[in-house]
């Protein structure tokens, strides 16, 4: 079935550690996104990529990094510079123009040990 | 900057009641798109509807209906005869051409409304 796969579902990070969240899609979508969700805050855009080898910062990119080497993959690294990384992270993709509906994965919940 | 306000943080109803979720948006652009998404307890967001700024026609899909009014910058969502399976967080979202740098890729979400439907 076509969709977006995020892994792992739960992730724990030690202080000072970088961690990478995986996002893979088989929908043949050009655009991919990473969002952060905190309780009562809705979703906030971290990074997005309209095409392979290109990506743009969203509203809260500090402390995060991404790469887009393949159309189907858009991994997110939470660096040690992100001082408050505990949150629910959602990956999404969309086809064609940016106003197309976004399709979401099941999310990764990141916690600090 | 574009903004979406969902003033209702939580709503609780009894099954079969009708419920309306409010969404008010702000944008300086004349071309924009509005969305509603549902987030069940599993966490994945599910797309419900998209409406562009040039189409003020209301839409009905089964028990769901949407009322788009540009005059009041609102895009409200009504569930008729609610069911327990409707329990979820519902998000309204907006993207506008100019405020997204011409690409419409930057989607701004409201903070969501938690709907609980009790049996």
Structure description:
- The complex is a heterodimer of chains A (113) and B (119).
- Chain A is mainly beta and 113 residues long.
- Chain A contains no helices and eleven strands.
- Chain A has strands spanning 4-7, 10-13, 19-25, 31-38, 42-51, 54-57, 64-66, 76-78, 87-94, 103-104, 108-112.
- In chain A, strand 5 (42-51) and strand 6 form a beta hairpin.
- The mean pLDDT of chain A is 92.
- Chain B is mainly beta and 119 residues long.
- In chain B, the strands form three sheets. In chain B, strands 2, 5, 6, 10, 11 and 12 form a six-stranded mixed beta sheet that branches.
- In chain B, strand 5 (32-39) and strand 6 (46-52) form a beta hairpin.
- The N and C termini of chain B lie far apart (41 Å).
- The relative contact order of chain B is 0.34.
- At the A-B interface, strand 5, strand 9 and strand 10 of A face strand 5 and strand 6 of B.
Task: Quote the beta fraction of chain B.
Answer: over 45%
Summed up, the helix count of chain A is 0
Structural class of chain B: mainly beta
Summarize the biggest pleated sheet of chain B.
6 strands, mixed
Segments of chain A where pLDDT lies below 50 for 5+ residues? none
Number of strands of chain B: 12
- Assembly classification: heterodimer
Q: Give the C-alpha Rg of chain B.
A: 14 Å
